[in-house]
Design brief:
By secondary structure, the protein is mainly alpha-helical. It is built from 15 helices and 4 strands.
Amino acid sequence: MDTLLLARLQFATTTSIHFLFVVVTLGLVTLLVGLQTAGFLTGKPIYERLTRFWGQLYVINYVLGIATGIVMEFQFGLNWSGLSRYVGNVFGAPLAIETLVAFFLESTFLGMWIFGWHRLRRGVHLALLWGVALTAYASAFWIMVANSWLQHPVGYEVRDGIAHLTDFGALLTNPTLRFAFGHVLSAGLVAGGTLMAAVSAWHLLRRTPDFVLFRKSLRLGLVTVALAVPVLLGFGFAQFGPIGQLQPTKFAGGPDRDALVAEWTAKFGPGNYDPPALSDAALGFMILIGFLLACVWLLLPLLWRDWLIRLRFPLWLVLLALPLPFVAVLLGWIAREVGRQPWVAYGLLPTGQAVSPVGAGAMLTSLIGFSLLLGALAVSNWVLLARHAARGAADPALGRPPAPDPDIRPEPAFA
């Protein structure tokens, strides 16, 4: 079997699974900030209950998502030693910053938020959640900085066969970054809002006793999706301009394609420099799903007088729409990554020169092992989310007031 193909399959599998966790994290933490902030400002108990319920689902997804991220990181050294050796001085800089932000700041803020219920002042506790959200966004930003450099290498020079970073600011102003980052954040909001609306719709279809609570979260989820989808589509279509100029071989090719291919042929030798047709197909289906999700605007008028809940049929539509944003996320990632082939770093490092010099048997074993591990984490995540979501918001463990210790007795009063 082809070692390069196996390595690419492993990267596609592990990255795609991990990215599903990322969009849920980004979407839910934003909604949680809104819920807890509303509770802080209004003092209404319903917002604390919503924060506890959705916060519990967020924590489950975050913990297992971190595990998938750690597993995914191993493959850079195991399968792509050529990438680490050739561009590690540039590509590693934003990844190192992301690691500090995600594994230290974000995890610290989240841990203090989880265990700070009823122990910290309400304002301090809310500030911690804001810290979680801001560091989550910062983590996504630095990941996209690294990925955008692979899409369009900037701010470097090659010395002794190794790329060295010469302009850190160029990484932050990369033309392939600005719209892609907004696209990822809005995709997270669509995924988080759809998840919130679908879980709420399921409880309302079961005629939950917590009608008021899930009615509110249904509305919040649908409004979030309705506002985020146009932004998502806008950032998506805005990327076609930079992509056509900077990656003329992607998406049916641009006007400079032939000249660029001739340059590559002279430098790297003859070969097929056109990306697989899979990238174009993934792009088309992703756009189709985006317009389908935009139909949520047709449901918003039904929120008046709770017609959406009374008719019940629209609740089934909301529930059945749950997989759509996640399928679209996978298709979008395929379009971005497969469309860059046959390059690891576009126009700079072919995938054939980046793959580790290991045998096909070892690479196949690695592919099977990583896929099973990531798949088990993904299945565990969805099972736990479904189980805790089905229990409802009567008394989530997260944020539950500590029970009095029966072994501690009040000291007698003396005259």
